[in-house]
Write a structure and sequence with these properties.
Pfam families: BPD_transp_1, OppC_N. The protein is an all-alpha fold and 311 residues long. 72% of the residues lie in helices and 1% in strands. It has one domain (3-310): MetI-like fold, CATH 1.10.3720.
C-alpha cells in the first residue's frame, strides 16, 4: 500500500465522520482556516498580485526609498504600502516574503515530520538498544531551545561554506536547521503510540501471517497514528515560521536579497525611530495574522481529534 493511498484512506475516514461537521459548527476555526487559505493563495499568486518583482534589482529605485504608504514615486509609480530602504515596493516584498516564509515553514515541518515519524516508528516497534539510542538523543536535544540548535547548524554551515555558496543555499540550510529542531516531538509522540499499537490484535495477526516489518509499520500502524502527527505538524508550522522570522531578524537566516517576513521586519527595525514605521510594522502584522490563523486552527484540530473532548 502506497503512502498516497494511506493518506487518501485516512482523509476519507475523517471527512466521512463528524470532523467536518464540527468544523462547520466552529466559527473561530472557519475564520482561521479562511484567513490562512487567503494568505496561502496570496503567497502562491505573488507573481500575479505583486505590482513589482521583489527579486529583480531593476524594480527597486533608490530615489523612491522609504516612501510612506500611498506615495507616488519619481516616475509616477504608486506604492500602496510604501517602499523599503532599498526602494522596493512594500506590497510586492511582503507578498514574496510571505511565500518565502511559507515555503520554509512547510518544508521544514515536512522534513521534521518525516525524520521524527521514521525514528519514532523504529524506536517504538524495535525497542531495545535502538529505542534507547534514539530516545536518549531526543532527551539531550530537548535540553536545548530550538532556536539555539538552528543557530548552531546555521553557524557551522557559515564556517564551512564560502559566503557566496552559503547565500546561494541559505534556504535549504535554514530548512534543515529548523527541521532538526522539531523532529523530537514527532519521534516521542509516535513512539508512545506505537508502543500501544504494536500489542493490538491486527499487528499480532500481521506478524503471524508473515507480513514484513516495513509493511506492518507503514501500512498498518502508521495510518492509526496520523491524527496526532497532523495536529503536531499544524501547530509546528506556526512555530517554524516564527523560527525562520527570528533567525532572519537576527541576521542569520535568509539574506536581504531574498525577502522573507523576518528579514523585512529586521530591515525596518533599523528605521523605526526615524518615523518609517510601515517598513517593520506591516510585515510584522502579516506575520502575526499568519501565525495566529495557523495556531487557532491547530488548537481546534487538536481538540476535535481528541476523543475525550469530542464526547
Amino acid at each position: 500500500m502506497s503512502v498516497s493511498s494511506v493518506i487518501r484512506r485516512v482523509a476519507g475516514a475523517w471527512l466521512d465522520g463528524d470532523l467536518l461537521y464540527r468544523f462547520r459548527r466552529s466559527p473561530v476555526a472557519v475564520a482561521a482556516a479562511a484567513l490562512g487559505a487567503l494568505l496561502v493563495l496570496a503567497a502562491l499568486g505573488a507573481d500575479l498580485l505583486a505590482p513589482y518583482d521583489a527579486f529583480d534589482p531593476a524594480s527597486a529605485n533608490a530615489a523612491d526609498a522609504r516612501l510612506p504608504p500611498g506615495s507616488q514615486g519619481l516616475f509616477g509609480e504608486t506604492y500602496a504600502l510604501g517602499t523599503d530602504p532599498q526602494g522596493r515596493d512594500m506590497l510586492s516584498a511582503m507578498l514574496y516574503g510571505l511565500r518565502t516564509s511559507l515555503v520554509v515553514g512547510v518544508a521544514s515541518v515536512g522534513l521534521a515530520a518525516v525524520m521524527g515519524v521514521l525514528l519514532g516508528l523504529v524506536a517504538g516497534y524495535c525497542g531495545g538498544l535502538i529505542d534507547a539510542i534514539i530516545m536518549r538523543t531526543a532527551d539531550v536535544q530537548l535540553g536545548f531551545p530550538a532556536i539555539l540548535i538552528a543557530l548552531l547548524i546555521d553557524g557551522v554551515t557559515r564556517a564551512v561554506l564560502p559566503r557566496e555558496v552559503h547565500e546561494r543555499f541559505a534556504m535549504p540550510v535554514l530548512i534543515v536547521a529548523i527541521a532538526a529542531s522539531y523532529w523530537v516531538q514527532y519521534a516521542r509522540t509516535v513512539r508512545g503510540l506505537v508502543l500501544v499499537e504494536r500489542r493490538r490484535d491486527y499487528v499480532l495477526a500481521a506478524r503471524v501471517t508473515g507480513v514484513s516489518t516495513p509493511r506492518t509499520l507503514f501500512a498498518h500502524i502508521l495510518p492509526n497514528v496520523l491524527g496526532p502527527i497532523l495536529v503536531i505538524a499544524t501547530i509546528n508550522l506556526a512555530l517554524a515560521i516564527l523560527t525562520e522570522s527570528t533567525l532572519s531578524f537576527l541576521g542569520v537566516g535568509l539574506p536581504a536579497t531574498q525577502p522573507s517576513l523576518g528579514s523585512l521586519v529586521r530591515i525596518g527595525n533599523e528605521f523605526v525611530f526615524s518615523g518609517d514605521w510601515w517598513i517593520s510594522t506591516l510585515p510584522g502584522l502579516l506575520l502575526v495574522l499568519l501565525s495566529l490563523s495557523v495556531n487557532i486552527f491547530g488548537d481546534w484540530l487538536r481538540d476535535a481529534l481528541n476523543p475525550k473532548l469530542a464526547q
